[in-house]
Amino acid sequence: MRRKRLKGKGVEIPVTPLIDIVFLLLIYFLLTSHFVEQEAFKVRLPETTSRGQVVEEALTITITREGDFFVNQRKVSPALLEEELKRIAAERAISRVHLEADREARVQWLVRAMEAAKEAGLKNVLVKTVRVTR
Q1: What's 6's DSSP letter?
Q2: According to the model, what pLDDT value does residue 130 have?
Q3: Which residues of 1-131 form beta strands (DSSP E)?
Q4: Under 8 Å between Cβ of 124 and 56
Q5: Mapping DSSP to helix (H, G, I), strand (E, B) and coil, where does residue 106 land?
Q6: What are the extents of the domains in the chain?
Q7: Are 54 and 126 in contact (CB under 8 A)?
Q8: What is the pLDDT of residue 37?
Q9: Are 46 and 40 in contact (CB under 8 A)?
Q10: pLDDT tens, 33-82?
Q11: Rounded Cα gap, residues 101 and 124, in angstroms
């Protein structure tokens, strides 16, 4: 085992176990960092058997089971939804909207989000679903 000797003191510090511990901690943090979920809220999307398509950048409206509205993961009150959509669409020049509504959310909330997107001038509104095989 290598030992580092301090000059003039006669004290030895074992370096090898320290390096082993540092590498073990590094490996631990690298492995666990990949499994951390970044979601702020849980939404169970409705199911479908048809295949969807991958699309470009879009504005995302999420509706939770309790009726909370989120625009790009930022909570927005239903009354201010249309204004927020107009502001973001003007800033980013986006015309596409993805709606992520929990499968247990009320249909009226989904309709409210679709109407707000239409009034904000967003033409392409897509409802996200989860594909299941049967």
Answers
A1: P
A2: 75
A3: 3-5, 12-14, 47-48, 59-63, 69-71, 74-76, 96-101, 124-127, 130-131
A4: no
A5: coil
A6: 3-33, 47-131
A7: no
A8: 54
A9: no
A10: 765 555 556 667 677 676 655 555 788 899 998 989 999 888 998 888 99
A11: 16
Q: Residue 44, Cα to own-chain centre: how many angstroms?
A: 14
The residue assigned the tokens 């009226």 is 108
The single-letter DSSP state of residue 64 is -
Highest mean pLDDT (candidates 9-23, 50-64, 104-118): 104-118
Torsion angle in degrees (nearest 10) through CA of 24, 27, 31, 33:
100
d(CA 131, CA 16): 52
Q: At what angle do helices 81-92 and 107-119 cross, to 10 degrees?
A: 50
State the pTM of this model. 0.59
Smallest Cα–Cα separation from 120: which of 76, 74, 65, 80? Answer: 80
How confident is the model at residue 2, as a pLDDT?
Answer: 63
**Residues 115, 122: Cα–Cα separation, whole Å:** 10
Secondary structure (DSSP) of 46-58: PEESS------S-
* Domain topology for 47-131: Nucleotidyltransferase; domain 5 (3.30.420)
Pairing of strands 12-14, 96-101: unpaired
